[in-house]
Amino acid sequence: MDWSRFLPRVSEGYRGSRLATYFLVLFAVVSTIRSLIHILAPDGGASSIAGIPVDVEGGANIIAMFAQWGASQMILALLTWLVILRYRFLVPLMLAIVSAEQILRIGVGQLKPVVVAAPPPGEIGSYILLPLSLLALLLSLSRTSGAA
Fold first, then answer.
1. Which residues fall within 8 angstroms of residue 133, CB to CB, at 6 or more apart?
2. Domain residue spans in the chain?
3. Do residues 104 and 126 lie in contact, with contact meaning Cβ atoms separated by under 8 Å?
4. Concatenated DSSP letters for the chain?
5. How far apart are CA 16 and CA 141, in angstroms?
6. Do residues 91 and 83 lie in contact, with contact meaning Cβ atoms separated by under 8 Å?
7. Residue 103 CB neighbours (<10 A)
8. What is the pLDDT of residues 120-133, one digit of tens each?
9. If pLDDT is split at 50, 70 and 90, which confidence band does 81 have?
């Protein structure tokens, strides 16, 4: 199979801030770990991390939904790694996607909040990640002479 049809070589380089790229690497690491937890943890992280009871009727469905969510998160993590390792010129686009995801997560969380004793880490994380991802996006759009 000719993989270059899926992953063509591109000569255009990234000219934005290295800080934005470092932020994207950190995001990729956290996203990879987060997705693996949702996929591999016995409760998908629903109870042990988010505080959602799964020992109730339909609990297996909650666990399954968390695992499926982990699979979607893994796709985003893999795309992020692809941008970092091969398509660095797409760093601004990836940061725009990360920012949009946080906006949507916060918005959906307002429309359909999770009812638990304490906010899950992902909810708190979105409020932290949104301004950081927007700042990284702005940095990635600035042209620097020493960029990678």
1. 23, 27, 95, 98, 99, 102
2. 17-141
3. no
4. --GGGTS----PPP-S-HHHHHHHHHHHHHHHHHHHHHHHSTTTTTTTTT----SSTTHHHHHHHHHHHHHHHHHHHHHHHHHHHT-GGGHHHHHHHHHHHHHHHHHHHHHS----SS--HHHHHHHHHHHHHHHHHHHHHS--TT--
5. 6
6. yes
7. 14
8. 888 899 999 999 99
9. very high
